[in-house]
Amino acid sequence: MENDDIVWSIINKSFCSYKVNTKTQRFCRNEYNLTGLCNRSSCPLANSQYATVREEDGNCFLYMKTVERSGFPRNMWEKVKLSKSLEKALRQINEYLVYWPGFLKQKCKQRLLKISQYLIRMRKLRLRRQKKLVPIQRKQDRRERRREEKALVAARLDSAIEKELLERLKRGTYGDIYNFPQVAFNRALEEEEDAEVNMEGEDYGEDEENEGEEAEEEIDEELEKELEEESENEEVEYVEADSDLEAELESESDVEDIEPKDINAVKDNARRKPRLEIEYETETLSKNPKRTV
Fold first, then answer.
1. Of the candidates 104, 291, 85, 84, which has an alpha carbon nearest to the alpha carbon of residue 94?
2. Short-list 192, 35, 26, 185, CA closest to 107
3. Of 79, 199, 260, 264, which residue has the fewest beta carbons closer than 10 angstroms?
């Protein structure tokens, strides 16, 4: 039969795995300890009748140990779930610990109050907006970046190999020796044909523009040639005349009135209207004509 005094004398004077000594006092690390202190009234091993309150997943439970269950360590502690309401939980403690020592009853109520207070604080902290610290895994990021670069290089290499093989197949390098998928080959040919059609459409538009510019240049050249021919036809013909004829020509005001400015204006008009031809005729009458033999 167990004797609590003998157990405490052994634990107090010799070794206990749950005991922690400090400079001021001793503490107990047993999970069923009611106060956390290592003394005779709070030790769960040296008391055959013991009760405590524990919290599991936000719920409070009352654990009770009696002498009748000391022979069955598996069923030694009786577990009772307490209500979430503090008043109802305190009433349950009073009901289950009616004939128990007042020390255990009072300490269980204090422990229940402390547990309910820190559960309320936990709920409030969860509702608040909190900063979440995310660790930066530099080695993993560096590794993934290298893998991406290698995959990109491999993809470019594969596309280059595919293009080279398609070019060789078009040239007929392999002939009928190897069997190759016609789907990829036909797809590449269609893409090249579409690109050629687009290039031809662009070239056709450029050719039309060039043809229009060339036609305008040809028209300008033809006009310039016509103007040059007309200017050559309008050269002044000189006629041999005697001195008397020259005097008469000088005396006549009609002939003298023709100035080079008027001639230049006529030429300008001729250039502006190349198809209009203007001819000037002058008749001179000599009073004493001389016959040449």
1. 104
2. 35
3. 260
Token representation of residue 235: 């050269």
Please name every residue paired with 54 in a beta bridge, in sequence order, or none if there are none.
61
pLDDT tens per residue across span 189-221: 777 777 777 766 665 555 555 555 666 666 667
Cα atoms found within 13 Å of the Cα of residue 244, Cβ hemisphere only = 7
List helix spans (H) across 44-137: 86-96, 102-127
Q: Taking all residues of the chain, what is their mean pLDDT, rounded to a whole number?
A: 76
Contact 284, 248 (CB under 8 A): yes
> In this predicted model, what pLDDT tens digit does every residue of 102-132 receive, in sequence order?
999 999 999 999 999 999 999 998 888 878 8
Q: Which residues pair with 81 in a beta bridge?
A: 61
- Determine the longest span between alpha carbons in the chain, in angstroms: 185
Token pair for residue 76? 């030694």
Q: What is the pLDDT of residues 248-266, one digit of tens each?
A: 555 554 444 444 445 555 4
- As separate numbers, helices (DSSP H) first and strands (DSSP E) second, the chain gives 8, 5
Tokens (6 digits) for 3: 């004797």
Task: Count other Cβ atoms within 10 Å, centred on residue 51.
Answer: 26
Contact 43, 11 (CB under 8 A): yes
* Torsion, Cα of 143, 149, 154, 159 (10° steps): 150
Contact present, 269 and 227 (Cβ < 8 Å): no
Chain centroid offset of residue 83 CA: 53
Q: Tell me the HSE value of 59 on the side-chain side, using a 13 A CA sphere.
A: 9
Task: State the pLDDT at residue 201.
Answer: 61
Half-sphere exposure of 58 (CA within 13 A, CB side): 5
| 291 backbone φψ class: left, alpha, beta (φ>0; ψ -120 to 50) | beta
> How many C-beta neighbours within 10 Å does residue 53 have?
23
Q: Does the structure show a pLDDT above 80 at 21?
A: yes
Q: Is 0.70 topped by the overall pTM? A: no
